[in-house]
Amino acid sequence: MAFVQAIVQACLQAGRDPVPLLQQAQIAPQEVENPAARVTAWQFERLSGLAMQALDDEALGWFQRRLPWGSYGLLARASISSPTLGVALLRWCRHHGLLQEDVTLHLESEGGTATLSLTAHRDLGPFREFCPVSVLRNAHGLACWFIDSRIPLLGAQFPFPRPAHHDAYAVLFPGPTRFGTGPAALRFDARYLQLPLQRDEAALRLMLQRALPLTVLQYRRDRLLVQRVRHALAADPGAAHSAEALAQRLHLSPRTLHRQLKDEGASLQGLKDEVRRERAIALLHRTDRPIKQVAHEAGFTNDKSFIRAFRGWTGQSPAEFRRKARSPA
To answer: Cα(72)–Cα(138) distance, rounded to whole angstroms?
Structure first.
């Protein structure tokens, strides 16, 4: 309800009665002051859209300069022709700064982690929470839509103290969230920046007819999940890597992990075998370590199970494979 209160504040600040808008969104006006009250995704989408059109301000009072209806659509059109998500987000950040001067968006990539940050250049007053949360959630939702994929967050942070309704952030920004540290920012795997856009102008026109769900609802599909699972397995080949432990590390439920891998034509056991096989082959090629040690470093509990699995992969024992790999052509 705190986000509804921010929209009500924007209406009052602009001299507009918020009650008719609340009623059209099926939100009881008397509930607005109830901190324990909640609204559905549909109610919030409906109220946001009504208020944006009534105020002719898609920023809902966050900025000193009003953003007329269609402003964010203009930003999306300026990015839709980008070859990759990274280019699209850089354009989004630059063009967002042309529409207003109150906040700056910045995208950087370092050490395999991409960070989208927001820095405020003035006191945002009653919108110090709603503004950065909305701007970053809008950018994240659009980024997911651009590549038709869920982009899991490695973390989110905000400069304001932890609010009483902090549990809502698990819905808006799945992943670890810190408060009281700035600037406001989202972190995610930088490999998503290299993915090509999956949308065109026709898809954009349809999306803009009902764009607000992107700011509330999460994508299920993850185009990088197979790579992320493979990376997690390879980082610690000796670990057991149960579905529960791996899902927790990737901020998913075990059921979701299995389902999404299946959607991508993969399985957890298949990826485990693939990573073990690659590790074992590399060790046999590049080192003289005993077969028992190779088995252990590839994630097997004993050399017998390793030899059996290796025969299934290659049709040869590890010793035969090493000998043939090193013999002159």
So the answer is: 9
Mean pLDDT, consecutive 10-residue stretches, the chain (329 aa), reads: 94 95 95 88 90 96 94 94 97 96 97 96 94 95 90 94 91 90 94 93 85 64 83 78 86 86 85 88 89 89 89 89 77
Mark whether 75 and 150 lie in a shared domain: yes
Residue 36, in any domain of the structure:
no
- Total domains present in the chain: 2
Domain boundary among 194, 215, 236: 215
**β pairing state of 177-179 and 153-158:** parallel
Together in a domain, 97 and 129: yes
Print the SS3 string covering the chain.
Answer: CHHHHHHHHHHHHCCCCCHHHHHHCCCCHHHCCCCCCCCCHHHHHHHHHHHHHHHCCCCCCCCCCCCCCCHHHHHHHHHCCCCEHHHHHHHHHHHHHHHCCCEEEEEEEECCEEEEEEEECCCCHHHCCHHHHHHHHHHHHHHHHHHCCCCCEEEEEECCCCCCCHHHHHHHCCCCEEECCCCEEEEEEHHHHHCECCCCHHHHHHHHCCCHHHHCCCCCCCCCHHHHHHHHHHHCCCCCCCHHHHHHHCCCCHHHHHHHHHHCCCCHHHHHHHHHHHHHHHHHHHCCCCHHHHHHHCCCCCHHHHHHHHHHHHCCCHHHHHHHHHCCC
The last residue of one of the domains, among 215, 243, 276, is 215
Any domain includes 131? yes
Q: Considering the entire predicted model, what is its pTM?
A: 0.76
The answer to the question of residue 235 being in a domain is yes
Q: Which amino acid is at 211?
A: A
For β-strands 103-110 and 177-179, DSSP reports them as: unpaired
Amino acid (1-letter code) at residue 298: A
Distance set, CA 169 to CA 77, 146, 226 (Å): 29, 23, 26
- Residue 162's domain comprises 56-215
Based on the fold, state whether residues 81 and 194 are members of the same structural domain: yes
